[in-house]
Design brief:
heterodimer, A: 490 residues, mainly alpha, Transcription Elongation Factor S-II, Chain A, 3 domains, three-stranded antiparallel beta sheet, B: 399 residues, alpha+beta, DNA primase, PRIM domain, 2 domains, four-stranded antiparallel beta sheet, 9 strands, binds iron/sulfur cluster
Chain lengths: 490, 399
Amino acid sequence: MDLNIRRKSTKVQLSGSLVETYPHDLQMYKIPPTENITLQEFETLALERVTLLRCLATATTLKGLRMYSEEWTEYVIGELKTQGLKYYAKLCEKTSCATTEADLQARRKDHIAHFILRLAYCRTEELRRWFIARELELFKMRFATMRSDAVETFFKINNLCYTNISDDEKSEIMHHLRESTPHSNIDNMKFYKVKFYEVLDLVKMRKVYLSGGYAYIAHKDFISVLSAQYRTQLKQSLAVASHHLGEIEQDERLVSLLKGLHQSYSGDDYSNAKAMIPIESLDSLSVKSFPLCMRQLHEQLRLAHHLKHGGRLQYGLFLKGIGVTLEDSLKFWRDEFTKIMELDKFEKQYAYNVRYNYGKEGSKKNYSPFSCLKIINNTVGPGDCHGCPYKHCDVSILKNRLQGYGFEYQAINEIMDMTKKGHFQIACSKYFDAVHHSDMGLGINHPNQYFEESQKIAKGDIKVEIKKEAKPSVKKEINDFDAMDFEEIM
Amino acid sequence: MVGLYDESMLPEMLPIYYTRLFPQSIFCRWLSCGSSPQPLSNRELSFTLADDVYLRYLSICNQKELQLLLQKKCPHKLDIGAVYNTKPSIGRHDAVVLSRELVFDIDLTDYDEVRTCCQEAKVCEKCWKFMVIACEIIDKTLKEDFGFQSILWVFSGRRGIHCWVSDYEARTLDSPGRGAVADYLCLIMGGDNQNKKVHLGSDNLHTSIRRALAVIDKYFDQLLEDQEFLSSAERLDKMLKMIPDEALRSQVQKTLESMPENSLLRWKMFLSVYESYCRESGNNARKIRYLVEEIKIQFCYPRLDVNVTKGFNHLLKSPFSIHPKTGKVSVVFKPGNAKNMKLDEIPSIYSLLDDSAPDNAQHEANMRVAVKNFQEVVFSLEKAEAMRRRNDANMSLDF
Ligand code: SF4
């Protein structure tokens, strides 16, 4: 990529060439930008796009909305407008191929900003993963809001030509298509045959008919093909970008900016503990300051003197994050496990794992404790009790457990309510309030953050107002988006 | 039988086994074909020695080196890893995994919450039927849906089975691809805190699920009798917890509890209570449209260790490795023949190497069959590879 950064911009752009470069609202970002931009624009564009990607993450995790549902898209677009990112709102809301000056400028910004973030996010595996996930969500959302004529143009521009299967072939497999494809009105649809690995997201969800290595997809399923291509391409270019970081980072003005970009948002990854927690206090802490996912693991460990691999990983890293030392950790796990097994077996099969979590074995990485997102999306199988209880517990079991802990009727109802709606992290926040008799309505996105917030209360850093006051309204509505000047807000 | 022998004899027996019985030549052909276009030496092998010492990143160039390595180290267990861009060795951190067979690992311990005959490390003919079902369902799915052909089925040595898919497309599948195949096959989800682990929704059932149910139906009544899923109060309770509809649940409970403790009869009765309940409640029944199927699946459907399938470089026990605890050989079997396998007829190193052992003759015969099964898969893989290479060559000529 060839981004030249100048202090002063010499922007003499002809709209004519912009029309050629940016014929469509939706891009696959295949060619990097080559124009010169000012450092200030560079910074602004970068920050704005981070805000955009962050909106997507918030909609899914904190708001608990179902991805790509109407409410989800609505929330994202609304949020973009409130944040003063009208041009992104426009690109997302009605993706099209018009060519007004505003359209072209929006696409230009979109294009440049995307490439700036590639530089910021190619640094580590974790950053790459976050970036790819968000960019894909963005891409899919924009594809979904696209009108059908714009879709056609998009296919043309990107040279995507596929031929549908013949009517004979279709009628032969018709009843399989009916069984295995979620669309209604299949009779009138054209079907296309692609290799199964081109539509992995459909395969995963069992939403497509497979035969002999081919997937039979309808026209609207092409978003799967496209996003898979986009993902591969993005992954490769991030890998390439990370190799060329050295060249870009000769400009030190950029270095600090790029490095700080994600940090300013995601904050702590809790891989280094801030305090020391003695293992003797874990029993009481698990009641007072652990989120339910960790309390559940702790109790299970005490009860069964064993946890399966997934549980050891989730709980072990959490303990490291709150400040249990390696020596203490080893003692803690040993004491429990040796109640049901020989010391020798523990040392051979399990001690490695504990040291591994602390970066003392294997690739010696300092692993960070899992975030809620990761825990919620983890696979939980038979015999496992890790995961997030709001997602991975039967409603009746969860309810019994909460009753067993002695919470008030109303608190339990609130938690259960959120759980049933699939708002796991909000349920967790309600649980926090129930434990602390507070009404903080925290946004929980990390078990270790939960722990730290709880400790603040315990130490009196935060005074808890006793519950049952009028709730402050969470969000101020700004109705008149158009009245706000975009430039001012920045 | 196993009681007559023990692990302490392994150091003496293994060298003989590796030289005389382990199918070294065909093993090397399988691995090098499955490594191409990379050379065989880029494949990671790993040994577990006596005392659980673990050697990773070993590799061989040919059969001779394999023989030497086996004699020198005398591994108690032999694992196979991925194919790298260079010869794997401990010091290399820049080595990249290029390919790896698509693998599946099914272990009876994952069935502990449903099987009633054995727990943990134990197996018997009764719970082996779970493996028969798993093998048949997965084999069909891999062939019919994904179009794979080089599929090797291997007894894991104690209480489970492994499956290796060597088709080029499978070997080079990336990790999201492996994840998707695993998820496609995975219907039972949820941990110890979820009683009902199967949710099929209320829309049409996917073709692959229908096919799986057809397989389950062949064995279901037999399993009901073997496993007595519904006999005691406690077992019945487990099944009741899978019924989400409270009214139906209490009806079923009342009816079944008053019956004799016969699972088959109780199941038949459950079906008829369920059917009439659905008829009466009309639209409400939509939510429990596939309840019967869901319960069957939770009882019988394959339980994969998805992490093994998803991981690109997970080590997996090699075919014809010896299980250090049981002494049994990880034999290759034909999926269609899984139901005829008898656990005590699976050859063990002890009876293979002891002429006077009572089952020596039979174990030797079965070992020969296993090697032949292995050969068949390898031959067809070699053919497919040759064809693929020819096609690739033609393609590049065309340009
Ligand atoms: S929301 Fe996060 S902290 Fe709370 S229980 Fe779930 S995973 Fe744990």
